[in-house]
Amino acid sequence: MKQPPHRFSVAPMMDWTDRHCRFFHRQLSAKALLYTEMVTAEAILRGERERLIGFNDAEHPVALQLGGSDPSKLAEAAAIGEARGYDEINLNVGCPSDRVQEGRFGACLMAEPDLVARCFLAMSEAVDIPVTIKCRIGIDDQDSEADFQRFIDTVGEAGCGLFIVHARKAWLSGLSPKENREVPPLDYERVYRLKDSRPDLIISINGGIASLDEAERHLRHVDGVMLGRAAYQTPYILAEVDRRFFGSSEAVPTRTQALQALVAYTQAHLARGGRLNNIVRHTLGVMHGLKGARQFRRHFSENATGEGAGIEVLLAAIEMAEEAETWQRDKGFGSVQRDLGTPRTSAAALAGEAE
Fold first, then answer.
1. What DSSP string describes 35-103?
2. CA–CA separation, 237 vs 39, rounded Å?
3. Phi/psi at 354 (nearest 5 deg)?
4. Which of 122, 212, 223, 279 has its C-alpha lying 20 to 30 A from 115's C-alpha?
């Protein structure tokens, strides 16, 4: 049976899931639904659209996540996204950062379900592709189950049939965005109860999911699972997604094959004046669990960040990956990454960006 793309997706993550990240993830999974970083409607209407929302056709299926609270601007931005070829438009009602609150969008919109319903309705009337909502289970003191149910019911009445729910509340003051991903306790059961009470809705769960085994357990209760940091920090976890969640019979790609698929893409990027690190920073965790993973990361940190770093740096890394995978196969360990925790050196560290 063909499975819907929301059965497994990779979360939109600011400063992480850019077009280069998505292209790399697509080499590992042909089926997982990928999301852009959140882009504000205002930026799309006024900014450089190719830089903001351009993407490679190889990324499909791919969804554009929008931020905003003005129904007419969101509708216009959604239409632009559809014209660009996106497969879905998603409205962010979950980001808790100060920057987002100042613009009256993100998680603070959970306090205004009627406005979210109007935004959804305007967007859905402007496009023919699906429009979805990503939200939290609550915010600040509006975190009761009744508050959450009221939000879902109000937006659902406007026609929204698919909600991606981060199973934590958000504190809009007193906690940083990073703390809001870790401090408020997870409440998966509340998301399960939502699905039980609204079987007509498609519910995907997000938040703190670290392995494919965990994802499978969640799928006993909800329709889809969205993986965030685990997919970014240990990307080879995605190599098993198509077989485990979509019934694919295709061979699992090796790390070497996924990196080799980046060569022509990277050469084109460099020819346009791009920097090597724009791309390879997203691959740092791909060797996690293999002998030589630390040397692989060090190779990029020492050679990929300088101006003028060329394709030879990537080619050398591919040789390192091939040697490591050959050693692992010769020792009879197989090639699929096991859940070994988070690597000590994060890709965000190489990128110079906070998690």
1. EPPPEEHHHHHHS-HHHHH---GGG-SEEEEEE-S-HHHHHHHHHHHHHHT-SEEEEEE----HHHHHT
2. 26
3. -75, 145
4. 223
CA distance 201 to 237: 28
- Residues facing 9 on adjacent strands: 33, 226
Q: Which of 84, 52, 74 is nearest to 126 (CA)?
A: 74
Q: For residue 95, indicate whether it is catalytic.
A: yes
In this structure, the dihedral spanned by the alpha carbons of residues 62, 66, 72 and 75, taken in order and rounded to 10 degrees, is 10
* pLDDT tens column, 147-191: 999 999 999 999 999 999 999 998 887 666 667 666 688 999 999
236 pLDDT more than 90: yes
Residue (of 74, 52, 70) closest to 124 by Cα position? 74
Q: Do residues 111 and 139 make contact, with C-beta atoms less than 8 angstroms apart?
A: yes
Q: Are 58 and 24 in contact (CB under 8 A)?
A: no
Of 95, 108, 119, 160, which is the active-site residue? 95
For tokens 């129904």, name the residue: 71
Beta-carbon contacts of 293 under 8 Å, excluding residues fewer than 6 positions away, are 287, 324, 343
Q: How far apart are CA 294 and CA 163, in angstroms?
A: 39
What are φ and ψ of residue 33, in 5° steps?
Answer: -80, 125
Tokens 């990196």 locate to: 259
Residues shown for the chain: 355
Would you call 264 exposed, middle or buried from its count of C-beta atoms within 10 A (0-12, 13-18, 19+)? exposed
Going 208 to 232 to 103 to 80, the CA torsion angle's sign is: negative
Q: Which residues of 90-107 are buried (b: 16+ CB within 10 A; e: fewer)?
A: bbbbbbbbeebbebebbb
* Phi, psi for 334 (deg, rounded to 5): 80, -170
Give the rounded percent of residues in the chain with a pLDDT score beyond 70: 89
Neighbours of 307 (CB within 10 A): 7
